[in-house]
Amino acid sequence: MCRNIKTLFNFDPPATEIEIRDASLQFVRKLSGFSVPSKANEEAFERAVEAVAAAAPPHNREIEAAKARARSAARFGPRA
Q1: What is the dihedral of CA 23, 26, 31, 36, to 10 degrees?
Q2: Count of Cβ atoms closer than 10 Å to residue 24 Cβ
Q3: pTM score of the predicted model
Q4: Torsion 61-67-70-74 (CA) sign
Q5: d(C-alpha 71, C-alpha 80), whole Å
Q6: What does the pLDDT look like over 51-60, one tens digit per residue?
């Protein structure tokens, strides 16, 4: 994956609709290989952007921290 794609964490303050749409557009551009779709593919490109934007649920800081601790414990074992 491209390291220039900005991750939206949706914590405080939560990501705005514009930020989510921009990140979705960037993601679809990266996957498709096109920065601007052709007229024939424009509708499918926009549907893909909307689908990616809709699939971005907001995150909860406490839940994400608990997941990170569980991954760390599974990888390194419990803290001494």
Answers
A1: 140
A2: 20
A3: 0.66
A4: negative
A5: 16
A6: 999 997 777 7
